[in-house]
């Protein structure tokens, strides 16, 4: 297998608004991040992915960009950004930027021009259509609720927005738009960045004609996703982007791709096709959702997770590359979702980290994960900030009269603000995040869960992550080894083998709060030589054939 630095790296995602506020305005900022680069270095991560810091009216917290080459005033200045880049590079860390080019903000000058008239030179940078029978051009719904079309009375046409109406979709069919994007990317690359995370990048090619979707009973709009995910020209566009913008730079790229399957992902990440290095797939994020989508919460079955992760591990092995994550700024906190954020918070957070970091792929840590930050339960909808949560509540409770308590429960389980509460640095007021009024309330558990506590405690989740990251640097089998699932039917224990040349790993993780027996199947070819890491302290290397696992226990053995 080909060796690359980004396969050997661990990436740390920063959501700047919630990371660290340096000037007391209640909003995280770039100088705040620079203050914490030594924290990141100490943790041991190699790459920082910054969620968007560009100029934006913040309808979707920066995922609505009004100038791709300017910094959001709330976050600081271009000089602050340059200082951050230099501080990371000085310490041997890299920086990747978020690239949000499926859509721009409606306040971007391109859109301001485009809506002036049908013959404006920028009109075709966006997707405009006349109405049909006095209604929208098609029946697609927006990912943030309601129609995906907004009427513009001035030119008597609608524009497409797959997210909020302040996020008009860019028209990738237009070669001029594509060239503008590539030029902008090169401008950032020439500033010295080390790559891009590409927002919903598999949405940029839409099926011509934009056909209607099928409306579910009781609903007004249909999902149009089959007509815009992994669309007909997507590989052509990404290949062109690689050629025009990325070629010649030693950078990493990761495409965010809701609805991507293994077969498509192979094409996106096969190096011989020159598209992307890796993708974020979402199948494992959907395993605890019922037929009505993300807010329809159902318990996760471990065997479903195993089947899914194994399919990806085996599918991309030797062809493409996986990105490994259990949470990010759009998902609930992993310890609350897949572990136990009460009695076994520390053990289960460590177990989940072990499970993830020992898989084949590049692991991503989302800010706060390394100290075991949890979901939050605000009493009132007024305390929530996320446009997706607020639109959903409006639609379900205010417009459709659904039970507000039930809707709040689904927000507690799945809402994006679970991940966006301010980072918990210490037990002082507002968790040390700001001296002012935070833009969103701090999770009240910051008095016990915070970075200061975690760094002072040698047995903390934080120090466990440091160890996991260091192991990756020492044992190539962790990075490059093949994956083999064992015990596929077990509903409590997830165990697998990795092998690379003559090195092997046995990874055993208990996903339950029970004491459970583990027995290595007789046909599993493995002989342990040393114990690498475990979340209940040291354990003997010869204990691997038969062992009773403690609640959420994780053990990794190295051998042959
Ligand atoms: C995915 C981003 O991660 C999410 O935060 C955003 O709302 C949508 N794309 C739209 O940009």
In short:
With 560 residues, the chain is of the alpha/beta class. The protein has helices spanning 30-34, 37-43, 78-90, 109-114, 175-190, 234-246, 262-269, 302-316, 334-338, 345-357, 387-399, 404-414, 451-456, 461-474, 476-480, and strands at residues 11-14, 47-50, 54-55, 67-71, 94-99, 128-129, 149-152, 157-160, 195-198, 252-256, 278-280, 289-290, 293-297, 323-324, 362-366, 482-486, 493-500, 503-510, 516-519, 528-534, 546-549, 554-559. 27% of the residues lie in helices and 18% in strands.
> How big is the Rg?
23 Å
What is the overall number of helices? 15
Fill in the CATH topology of the largest domain. Answer: TIM Barrel
- Please provide the count of β strands: 22
**Class per helix and strand makeup:** alpha/beta
Strand order of the largest sheet: 11-10-9-5-2-1-15-14
Report on the structure:
Helix content is 27%, strand content 18%. With 560 residues, the protein is an alpha/beta fold. The strands form six sheets. The chain has an eight-stranded parallel β-sheet. The protein has a five-stranded antiparallel β-sheet with strand order 16-17-18-22-20. Strands 6-8-7 form a three-stranded antiparallel β-sheet, with no helix packed on it. The structure holds 1-deoxynojirimycin. 1-deoxynojirimycin binds next to loops.
Quick tags:
single chain, about 550 residues, alpha/beta, TIM Barrel, Oligo-1,6-glucosidase, domain 2, Immunoglobulin-like, eight-stranded parallel beta sheet, five-stranded antiparallel beta sheet, about 25% helix, binds 1-deoxynojirimycin
Topology readout:
Layout: E1 11-14, H1 30-34, H2 37-43, E2 47-50, E3 54-55, E4 67-71, H3 78-90, E5 94-99, H4 109-114, E6 128-129, E7 149-152, E8 157-160, H5 175-190, E9 195-198, H6 234-246, E10 252-256, H7 262-269, E11 278-280, E12 289-290, E13 293-297, H8 302-316, E14 323-324, H9 334-338, H10 345-357, E15 362-366, H11 387-399, H12 404-414, H13 451-456, H14 461-474, H15 476-480, E16 482-486, E17 493-500, E18 503-510, E19 516-519, E20 528-534, E21 546-549, E22 554-559
Parallel strand pairs: 1-2, 1-15, 2-5, 5-9, 9-10, 10-11, 14-15
Antiparallel strand pairs: 3-4, 6-8, 7-8, 12-13, 16-17, 17-18, 18-22, 19-21, 20-22
Bound molecules: 1-deoxynojirimycin (NOJ).
